[in-house]
Amino acid sequence: MTSEQSSDLNSQLNPQLNPQVSSRLTTHEPVMLNEIAQCFTTVPPGVVVDATFGLGGHSKAILKANPSIQILGLDQDADAIANAERMIADDASLRDRLTVRRVRFDCFDSLNAVLEELSIKEISGALFDLGVSSPQLDFAERGFSYRNDGPLDMRMDQRSELSAADVVNNYQESELAGIITQNADERFARRIARAIVAARPISTTTHLAEVIVAAIPAPARRTGGHPAKRTFQAIRIEVNKELEILARTLQIAIDATKVGGRVAVLTYHSGENRIVKQVFRSSEKDADEPKIGSPFIHESQLGTRRVRRVRMAQYPSEQEQTQNRRAKSARLRVIEKALAEARG
Q1: If you ran DSSP here, which 8-state letter would residue 173 be given?
Q2: Could you tell me if 58 and 78 are in contact, meaning their C-beta atoms sit under 8 angstroms apart?
């Protein structure tokens, strides 16, 4: 996009830049900030999609590291979009380089619609930081934290109907056990599900945490962090349907990325990690036909589009893991778009 086009897009997408963004937003330590910025220093000029914009820490670092790119920031959280609008209003240098849109990153139709609306045929790369953001964890009223008392909410998009209270109080015991196992690899899932059903109604995060802790055998409570961490994670993933369309959206991002562009993904638990590994591994191979329908795959490109792995499950440094507890479970995977040799 040209500078003029970018300005027009910001006028379309941010018609009311609100300088009085929620004062509740706190400082945030983006995970593996330097590593992420470095990933995008060599990508070709164009647009990089930050599919999980949050407070914009990664995006600002990427823009600083590579002056030839622009950022299209996506987020489903109203606070994140309000903060982005404030950033654009307060910093004139961002007005031609940052565009934001409130959509779910993991919705195939939304990602396609945004790219098509902005007439973006190819992107220079994409970033997916799949972790929950600091404001969502830090503010008790959002209902994500097992440490602070708040309502059972956990909705990343406050417009969504399903909340943690619905899952905790309405799901059958077998359903609860299933999502706790699938989304968190919790070995005591059945015991926890049984205890939750017995304790209903549950209306607050601390009440839920107490029920979970009591359901776990005492020796197991003393290892592996807070005993409620995995179950809260599992319920959050269910509420926000985080894994349902992840593979399809990653493939769309890869297909839309131009040669030399990169797709980087930060994962925080085994369910996300498995999906990303599978998609990246599949994308490395030549394909005679597209595995997933995409407007970015053209007949002339079939059998020639490939990627190469740049990062394979890179971990944060020991120093970062010590300084930022949210970085401990992070894994960074990066692929770069390439062309295979033409077939004879």
Answers
A1: H
A2: no
The pairing of beta strand 305-314 with beta strand 257-267: unpaired
Sheet holding 123-129, edge to edge: 98-102, 69-75, 46-50, 123-129, 257-267, 331-339, 305-314
- Domains of the chain plus CATH, in order, are 3-130+243-339 (3.40.50.150), 139-240 (1.10.150.170)
Strand partners, 339: 305
**Cα 160–chain centre separation:** 17
Amino acid at 133: S
Q: Could you give the CA distance from residue 150 to residue 142 in angstroms, rounded to a whole number?
A: 7
What tokens were used for 79? 């606070």
Cβ(120)–Cβ(252) under 8 Å? Answer: no
Alpha-carbon distance of 248 to 250, in angstroms, equals: 6
pLDDT tens for the chain, 344 residues long, are 444 444 433 433 333 333 333 444 445 689 999 999 999 999 999 999 999 898 899 999 999 999 999 999 998 888 888 889 998 999 988 989 999 998 865 554 677 788 888 899 899 999 999 877 655 566 778 888 888 899 999 998 888 899 999 999 999 999 999 999 999 999 999 999 999 999 999 999 999 999 999 999 999 998 878 999 999 999 999 998 888 888 888 998 999 999 999 999 999 988 899 999 999 999 987 544 444 455 554 444 444 557 999 988 899 999 999 998 888 889 999 999 987 444 33
C-alpha 176: how far from chain center: 23
Give the whole-angstrom CA distance, residue 19 versus residue 11.
Answer: 15
Peptide bond into 135 cis (omega under 30): no
15: how many CB neighbours lie within 10 A of its CB? 8
Give the pairing of strands 257-267 and 69-75.
unpaired
Per DSSP, the residues of 270-311 read HHHHHHHHHHHHHHHS--SS-SS--TT--GGGTTTEEEEEEE
Q: How far apart are CA 343 and CA 303, in angstroms?
A: 8
Q: Which residues pair with 47 in a beta bridge?
A: 70
